[in-house]
TrEMBL record:
SUPFAM superfamilies: P-loop containing nucleoside triphosphate hydrolases. Gene3D superfamilies: P-loop containing nucleotide triphosphate hydrolases. Its EC number is 2.8.2.-. One of its GO terms (molecular function) is N-acetylglucosamine 6-O-sulfotransferase activity. Keywords: Transferase. Belongs to the sulfotransferase 1 family. This is Sulfotransferase. Residues 6-187 form the Sulfotransferase domain. The keyword Secreted does not apply. GO terms for biological process: N-acetylglucosamine metabolic process; sulfur compound metabolic process.
Length: 211
């Protein structure tokens, strides 16, 4: 980034941490080793935030599979801590990053694919081809939402955005919000105040990001 002979730009694709947590839980068998590595990579000198539910690790299927999802949720503390540092750097950029960083929310990309795609291409001084716009539109206008992890397919944008709200328990949602409150605030992801608010899909829980 500091090399004057290179013109590098950073496009940082972000997503609601609650949706990230939901995806990691859904893929827990494929990501269990990776989640463990993420948890173990945390700085031992930093105070670790406790789980909101002290018995979470011992939970079972009756409470939403909390026991098997323990490491997937624990990894979110490390992921969001790293994300917070990145976003703080972008919020107060050094000279070499000024004008060379762009955060793109997954939610904006799937709700307004053409508009967001044009913004991304404009950021790197490129023109979007009609074929690329058609591809982006098709990928966000599919018939449904795949329940299988690691499947790339056309999806219904509305279902893709709200899937975490029905997949996670309220306790899991509050745990992620506790870990990820700083990046969520910077990126415009609203926290929920009640289980009823989670289920009210008429609320997008999105506001204008600070970046």
């Amino acid at each position: 980034m500091r090399d004057p002979t290179l013109d590098l730009k950073v496009i940082h694709l972000v997503r609601d941490p609650r949706a990230v947590a939901s995806s990691r839980i859904k893929s827990r068998h494929g990501l269990i080793r990776e989640s463990l590595q993420v948890v173990r990579s945390r700085d031992p000198h930093i105070h670790r935030m406790p789980f909101l539910d002290a018995g979470h690790k011992l939970g079972g299927k009756k409470d939403g599979g909390a026991g098997s999802d323990y490491h997937a949720l624990g990894a979110m503390e490390v992921i969001c801590s790293s994300m917070a540092k990145t976003l703080q750097t972008a919020l107060h950029p050094p000279d070499w990053l000024q004008g060379n960083y762009m955060a793109v929310r997954y939610e904006d990309l799937v709700v307004e694919p053409i508009k967001t795609l044009r913004q991304v291409y404009g950021f790197v001084n490129l023109a979007v081809s009609p074929d690329m716009e058609k591809f982006a539109l098709n990928m966000t206008s599919g018939p449904g939402y795949s329940s299988k992890p690691f499947v790339v397919s056309a999806r219904n944008a509305t279902q893709a955005l709200s899937a975490w709200r029905t997949a996670l328990s309220y306790q899991q949602i509050k745990q992620v919000e506790e870990y990820c409150q700083q990046p969520m605030a910077l990126l415009g992801y609203e926290r929920v105040g009640s289980p009823e608010e989670v289920k009210d899909l008429s609320r997008t829980l999105l506001r204008k990001p600070r970046l």
